[in-house]
Write a structure and sequence with these properties.
With 321 residues, this protein is α/β, with parallel strands linked by helices. It is built from 13 helices and 6 strands. It has one domain (17-87, 129-320): Alkaline Phosphatase, subunit A, CATH 3.40.720.
Length: 321
């Protein structure tokens, strides 16, 4: 038996997700939330319909979102169109977008450009000083980073690391390994473990449903949990339409399983991205499209209306917790 609020065929208007435009609904002023799980998906924007968009025509009630169309999400979810440009010219990029999500700092404005790949020294400083982990730990909250790292990372730390890794390490958040994965206490960025098995690691394959349930169970034990997934961005750069369509369906199953296994009367699940990419395979580069921030569960009416840009996500979560 699952504990999530399942969607039904007949739904009231207030139960459908909305991509907000001004004016927005009033923000609920309920007591602080029990827990928040933030699922960060790299490179997934709100695009237009057409052959260029692999999300057009596939059955994904979570990610089949298109410009100019109302979002109708399951699990009574709400969707907020989220600005990724942040007032800076150029294509939004990963290092600055992720720093903005994780700190609330306008990272592109801080370094006067959008930066791809890994954080620069100034972005690292912002992550070290202002990350959501630092803010919540200082407020006495329990936090976790759900991703599993391979032994290679611990044996020979790479020179360049992601914004999520900088945020976690600088706040003293434990990085999980394959032993945690084996015990069901971590999820690899490829939640099926296909990549790990291909690299020769002795791990079991995992269905999207199994991985989603494990992530939900882990998040129950913390006030805030972060999970990062970036295969979407890789497939966008490859312009691989068949693989992109197949992967979005797997990702839909994974996130649905998280929602199914979560107690949405207590927990809040947020899904967001740092920039567009996979929604427009006519180009290998990122896009100027906004992203969707999807919010489910207890805090949906408190958090979704507060989010207009990537810089709003951390403040909204910290305020709610």
């Amino acid at each position: 038996m699952t504990r999530g609020h399942r969607d039904t065929e007949t739904r009231r208007p207030e139960e459908t997700g909305t991509i907000f435009s001004s004016p927005r609904p009033r923000v609920s002023a309920s007591p602080r939330l029990d827990s928040v799980l933030l699922i960060f998906i790299d490179g997934l924007g709100i695009g237009t319909r057409g052959e260029h968009n692999p999300l057009d025509g596939i059955e994904s009630d979570l990610f089949g979102l298109f410009q100019g169309e109302e979002a109708r999400l399951p699990f009574e979810g709400l969707a907020a169109t989220t600005d990724v440009r942040l007032g800076v010219e150029g294509l939004p990029q990963s290092a600055t977008g992720q720093t903005a999500i994780l700190t609330g700092v306008n990272a592109p404005a801080l370094i006067e450009r959008h930066l791809h790949g890994y954080p620069s020294p100034r972005l690292k400083e912002a992550l070290e000083r202002h990350s959501i982990y630092k803010k919540l730990i200082s407020a006495g909250r329990r936090v976790a980073f759900a991703n599993a790292y391979t032994p290679r990372y611990f044996e020979k730390r790479p020179r360049f690391v992601s914004a999520t890794t900088v945020a976690a390490e600088s706040a003293g958040v434990r990085l999980r390994g394959l032993s945690d994965l084996a015990r069901g206490r971590a999820v690899f960025h490829d939640f099926t473990n296909y990549f790990l098995i291909g690299q020769g690691h002795m791990v079991r394959s995992c269905t999207p449903e199994q991985a989603g349930e494990r992530l939900a169970r882990l998040a129950e034990d913390y006030d805030f949990t972060l999970y990062e997934h970036f295969i979407t961005d890789i497939l966008g750069h490859r312009q691989d339409r068949p693989s992109a369509r197949e992967h979005i369906l797997l990702l839909t199953r994974f996130v649905r399983a998280v929602l199914d296994a979560s107690d949405l009367s207590r927990q809040t699940i947020i899904v967001t991205s740092d920039h567009g990419n996979i929604e427009d395979l006519s180009t290998r580069s990122h896009t100027l499209n906004p992203v969707a921030t999807l919010v489910f569960g207890r805090g949906r009416t408190r958090i979704a209306p507060r989010v207009r840009a990537l810089t709003d996500i951390t403040p909204a979560i910290v305020k709610a917790l």
